[in-house]
């Protein structure tokens, strides 16, 4: 720190000129906050800086006061002096409002530009640029290509990136880092300032913000320099983790809400918290949960509304305004509220269910207590043992400031493709060496090789998006450059959204994701949106529209689709494993739950009832003599055709281990292996001959160095890679937008693009998004060295079956799904099946399920050995009839005989079960074996299996 900065330590405001000091006095800013005391000196001196500080500590003013001071003291101001970049348009509006007073007082013009800015306003900004422009990463891409705007951008001296952690973890951020290198072509050097409440890897995010400089390639030691200002968040947050105790009044409330007493206890607990505070945000992890919880509060007539990204823009703004004015006391919200959208003062935050990550919890609870002297209070409400242990671990880690790393996308090739085109739009033509240097000066691309860079050029050239002058090693624009660029300003994947329209009022009420519509939506289904229940009337795929009607009957079920689950990091799951490891010997020695709970409460913020309830499965587990799965012990259990690895390694490592096991064992047996993963267990559906030993063998013998190769081979069969490949191909221009994603089947697309930069990027992204290869290599080495032990357990263990599934359906009343069951029954009864005689092979009839006799038989030979097959299963019939069968035909024939055996034993009931989507003979037998006397329960079991198939389909294909 310089002498000037030391002198200003107590009052950094003295570093400003007269104009800003006068504004501070007028505004009532007399004492600088902690981040202002630490950050203003380096910022005033022009250094790049990453400022990490809790929400409500004046981060915006920390960054902008030095910028305002520099602008106010500049002798000539012709162009744009500062860019303020935020990840959301809604934040743009808020930021303009927040900065407006300072701009007015200091005679500094501040304006906003994003996708909704009118053409008139854009032209005005080009002709008469504001001093400060608040914008988004995508809008900056477009601005860099405008002739007048490039002139205005040449005066940029400061770039402020708000919520930098959000951008650092996305392809949007990777795109922005190269965009800033393109900005340097016109603005030369400029100060870079990043702002965030939570960053787990400050030095890496600072380098992400600032980049490198170098002649040919970036020098690892030649970063552009930065200061990191970090104000500890631990002293400003307070958490309570609680599982509400069921009280007698909850039974009455359950009846009123048509739900379970446990769910009613959650509603009652949240209601009591909201009543005790003036303004509360209730964070949930999925839109589905937001809608389900919101519908309960609406039924009680409470002043609580719902806010999430699938609601129409007008609906979101309406609830934000009503919350801000105090008309509603609380908002049930998703991550849409994490990023600081202005909804006024918040004095408490409820997190419903585990927040899954430390960063997410700090970001959410940080919304409470927007005063410099106020501690942010948060209550985490849990519903299961996993939920509770995970939440107390996250709460402890949050107070200790142990935030997860940012998860930067390193070397994303579709971003490189996008930015090569952007660079050509800026300058018309460029030497390949110069383009390569520019791209690799951006931190996420510092390790990009020249061969990778040229493979991207080859793909772009083949798609006629650029022209390569090979003789002079130059790139130039082509006829397709302009159209591609403006169609791909954003790196957000182009996923279809279906508009949801209320047929009675003829208004749009929100949107549904394409994956939800494809997997779960069908006429007659009931779902919740905007806190109200709707029945689907019809789906128009051409118009991407779902027509619905409101229903008053509260018996509709919330669909069990949860979107992409927030992954629990290894560090959090490992701490849960360490808690188990600490508790196990105490329970073995006869300690009571209350005694063990007392010790845990000394370290973790929870209450007696909650911790003792969480310890209950562990107590039973130890009492029954099972080994406890911990951070360094895997317990393998098996029952029937299920093998489960209890492994406390977090979502991504468990997903990686699961894919490895399912691929290798599937290859060894020639049969599909189904898989379901959570942070503490991996469950497999296996062929009858496969036992736990096969999985232990994979873990103990797979060479860690070969892991990536095995996973890539496994990925080739998965829908997730094919879906990602289509999205990446679109960003490369390999799939023209007007052709649509479905012009080629996934397999044909895979065959066409394997070996190209498109394929390499799809694999990289899938690994980055879903898997942790490096972490799993470490786990395999520790298993093979004996650091991590493997033990087995016969049958299902209490910990094994006590996963999240124990609590995730609490929002759904046990038997309050009559309308859904009726719709499922109607659909199955009207589905078509092939009835085929396996005795004479003469009888083959296509008919609707409802027309099938109670005990089917062949009219030709009177045999009762009748297979019930899907209506498209002609290949099965052909396989049965074939005299010489190959391996695949033999499997098809075996499947037909298993089907016939079920029909012979159980008649039409078997036909109905086999008609379920993705059910098959094995699962149909399991459904029938439950001996459901109630018909609704029978159809409920079929529906549960259909949804299980939809979730795990990519592993069965």
Can you describe this structure?
The chain has about 950 residues and is α/β, with parallel strands linked by helices. Among the domains are: about 5-235, P-loop containing nucleotide triphosphate hydrolases (Rossmann fold, 3-Layer(aba) Sandwich), CATH 3.40.50; about 625-795, no CATH class; about 830-955, no CATH class. It contains 40 helices and 29 strands. It has a seven-stranded parallel β-sheet, with helices on both faces. Strands 8-13-12-9-11-10 form a six-stranded parallel β-sheet, with helices on both faces. Helix 12 (about 250-255) packs across helix 13 (about 260-275), helix 17 (about 385-400) packs across helix 23 and helix 29 (about 720-730) packs across helix 30. The chain is globular, with a radius of gyration of 30 Å. InterPro entries: ATP-dep_Helicase, DEAD/DEAH_box_helicase_dom, DNA/RNA_helicase_DEAH_CS, Helicase_ATP-bd, Helicase_C-like, Lhr-like, Lhr-like_DEAD/DEAH_assoc, Lhr_WH_dom. Belongs to the Lhr helicase family. Lhr-Core subfamily. This is DEAD/DEAH box helicase.
SSE topology sketch:
Blueprint: H1 3-7, H2 18-27, H3 34-44, E1 49-52, H4 59-73, E2 82-85, H5 89-106, E3 110-113, H6 119-127, E4 132-135, H7 137-143, H8 147-153, E5 158-161, H9 164-168, H10 171-187, E6 191-196, H11 202-210, E7 227-230, E8 237-242, H12 248-257, H13 261-276, E9 280-283, H14 287-299, E10 304-307, H15 313-324, E11 330-333, E12 348-352, H16 358-365, E13 376-381, H17 385-399, H18 413-427, E14 429-431, H19 432-440, H20 450-462, E15 466-469, E16 474-477, H21 481-487, E17 497-502, E18 507-513, H22 514-520, E19 526-529, E20 532-540, E21 545-550, H23 570-588, H24 593-601, H25 608-623, E22 633-639, E23 642-646, H26 651-669, E24 674-678, E25 681-685, H27 692-701, H28 707-715, H29 719-731, H30 746-753, H31 757-770, H32 773-785, E26 789-794, H33 798-801, H34 805-808, H35 818-830, E27 832-837, E28 844-848, E29 866-869, H36 874-881, H37 887-906, H38 908-914, H39 920-929, H40 935-956
Parallel strand pairs: 1-6, 1-7, 2-4, 2-5, 3-4, 5-6, 8-13, 9-11, 9-12, 10-11, 12-13, 17-21, 22-26
Antiparallel strand pairs: 14-16, 15-16, 17-18, 19-20, 20-21, 22-23, 23-25, 24-25, 27-28, 27-29
Helix pairs in contact: 3-4, 7-10, 10-18, 12-13, 16-17, 17-23, 17-25, 18-20, 18-21, 23-25, 24-25, 26-27, 26-28, 26-32, 29-30, 29-31, 35-40, 36-37, 37-38, 37-39, 38-39, 39-40
């Amino acid at each position: 720190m310089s002498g000037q900065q030391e002198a200003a330590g107590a009052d950094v405001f003295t570093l400003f000129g007269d104009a800003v000091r006068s504004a501070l006095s007028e505004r009532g800013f007399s004492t600088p906050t902690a981040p202002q005391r630490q950050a203003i000196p380096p910022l005033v001196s022009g250094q790049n800086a990453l400022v990490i500080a809790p929400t409500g500590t004046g981060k915006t003013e920390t960054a902008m006061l030095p910028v305002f001071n520099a602008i106010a003291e500049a002798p000539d101001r012709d162009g744009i002096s500062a860019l303020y970049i935020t990840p959301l348009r809604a934040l743009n509006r808020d930021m303009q409002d927040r900065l407006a007073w300072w701009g007015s007082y200091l005679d500094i013009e501040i304006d906003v530009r994003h996708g909704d800015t009118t053409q008139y306003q854009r032209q005005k900004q080009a002709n008469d640029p504001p001093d400060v422009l608040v914008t988004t990463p995508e809008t900056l891409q477009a601005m860099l290509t405008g002739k007048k705007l490039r002139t205005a951008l040449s005066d940029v001296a400061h770039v402020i990136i708000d919520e930098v952690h959000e951008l650092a973890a996305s392809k949007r951020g990777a795109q922005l880092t190269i965009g800033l290198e393109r900005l340097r072509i016109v603005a030369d050097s400029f100060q870079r300032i990043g702002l965030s409440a939570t960053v787990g890897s400050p030095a890496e995010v600072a380098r992400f913000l600032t980049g490198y400089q170098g002649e040919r390639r970036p020098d690892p030691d030649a970063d552009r320099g930065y200061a990191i200002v970090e104000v500890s968040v631990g002293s400003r947050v307070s958490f309570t983790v609680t599982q509400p105790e069921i009280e007698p009044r909850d039974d009455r409330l359950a009846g009123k809400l048509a739900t379970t007493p446990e769910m009613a206890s959650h509603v009652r607990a949240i209601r009591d918290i909201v009543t005790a505070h003036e303004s509360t945000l209730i964070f949930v992890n999925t839109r589905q949960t937001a809608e389900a919880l919101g519908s309960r509060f609406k039924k009680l007539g409470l002043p609580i509304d719902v806010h999430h990204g699938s609601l129409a823009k007008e609906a979101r703004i309406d609830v934000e305004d009503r919350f801000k004015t105090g008309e509603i006391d609380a908002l049930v919200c998703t991550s849409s509220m994490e990023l600081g959208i202005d909804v006024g003062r918040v004095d408490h935050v409820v997190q419903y269910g585990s927040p899954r990550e430390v960063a997410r919890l700090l970001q959410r609870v940080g919304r409470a207590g927007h005063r410099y002297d106020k501690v942010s209070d948060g209550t985490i409400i849990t519903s299961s043992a996993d939920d509770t242990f995970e939440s107390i671990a996250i709460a402890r880690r949050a107070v200790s400031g142990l935030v997860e790393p940012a998860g930067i996308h390193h070397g994303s090739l579709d971003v490189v493709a996008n930015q090569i085109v952007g660079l050509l739009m800026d300058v018309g033509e460029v030497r390949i060496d110069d383009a390569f240097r520019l791209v690799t000066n951006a931190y996420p691309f510092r390790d990009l090789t020249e061969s990778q860079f040229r493979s991207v050029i080859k793909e772009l050239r083949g798609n006629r998006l650029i022209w390569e002058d090979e003789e002079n090693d130059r790139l130039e624009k082509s006829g397709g450059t302009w159209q591609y660029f403006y169609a791909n300003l954003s790196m957000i994947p182009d996923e279809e959204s279906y508009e949801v329209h209320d047929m009675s009022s003829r208004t749009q009420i929100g949107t549904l994701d394409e994956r939800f519509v494809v997997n779960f939506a069908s006429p007659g289904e009931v779902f919740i949106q905007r806190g109200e229940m709707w029945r689907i009337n019809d789906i128009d795929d051409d118009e991407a529209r779902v027509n619905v009607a409101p229903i008053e009957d509260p018996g509709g079920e919330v669909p069990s689709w949860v979107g992409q689950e927030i992954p629990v990091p290894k560090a959090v799951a490992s701490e849960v494993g360490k808690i188990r490891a600490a508790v196990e010997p105490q329970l073995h020695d006869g300690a009571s739950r209350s005694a063990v709970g007392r010790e845990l409460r000394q370290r973790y913020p929870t209450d007696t009832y909650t911790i003792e309830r969480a310890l209950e499965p562990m107590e039973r587990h130890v009492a029954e003599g099972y080994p406890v799965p911990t951070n360094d012990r895997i317990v393998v259990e098996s029952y029937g055709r299920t093998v489960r690895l209890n492994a406390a390694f977090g979502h991504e490592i468990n997903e990686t281990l699961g894919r490895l096991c399912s691929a290798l064992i599937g290859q060894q047996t020639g049969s599909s292996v189904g898989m379901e993963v959570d942070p503490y267990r991996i469950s497999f559906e296996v062929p009858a001959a496969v036992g736990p030993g096969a999985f232990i063998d994979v873990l103990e013998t797979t060479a860690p160095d070969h892991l990536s190769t095995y996973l890539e081979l496994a990925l080739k069969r998965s829908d997730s890679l094919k879906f990602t490949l289509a999205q990446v191909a679109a960003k490369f221009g390999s799939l023209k937008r007007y052709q649509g994603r479905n012009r080629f089947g996934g397999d044909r697309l895979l065959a066409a693009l394997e070996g190209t930069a498109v394929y390499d990027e799809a694999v990289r992204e899938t690994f980055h998004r879903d898997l942790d290869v490096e972490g799993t290599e470490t786990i395999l080495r520790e298993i093979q060295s004996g650091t991590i032990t493997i033990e087995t357990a016969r049958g299902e263990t209490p910990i094994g079956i006590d996963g999240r599934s124990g609590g995730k359906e609490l929002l759904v009343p046990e038997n309050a799904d009559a309308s859904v069951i009726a719709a499922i029954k109607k659909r199955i009864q009207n589905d078509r099946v092939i009835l085929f005689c396996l005795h004479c092979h003469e009888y083959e009839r296509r008919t609707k399920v409802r027309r099938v006799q109670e005990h089917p038989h062949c009219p030709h030979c009177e045999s009762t050995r009748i297979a019930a097959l899907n209506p498209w299963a002609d290949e099965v019939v052909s396989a049965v009839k074939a005299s010489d069968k190959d391996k695949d035909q033999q499997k098809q024939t075996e499947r037909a005989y298993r089907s016939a055996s079920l029909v012979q034993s159980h008649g039409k009931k078997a036909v109905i079960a086999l008609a379920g989507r993705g059910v098959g003979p094995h699962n149909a037998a399991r459904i029938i074996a439950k001996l459901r006397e109630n018909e609704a329960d029978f159809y409920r079991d079929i529906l549960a299996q259909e949804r299980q198939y939809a979730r795990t389909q990519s592993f069965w294909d």
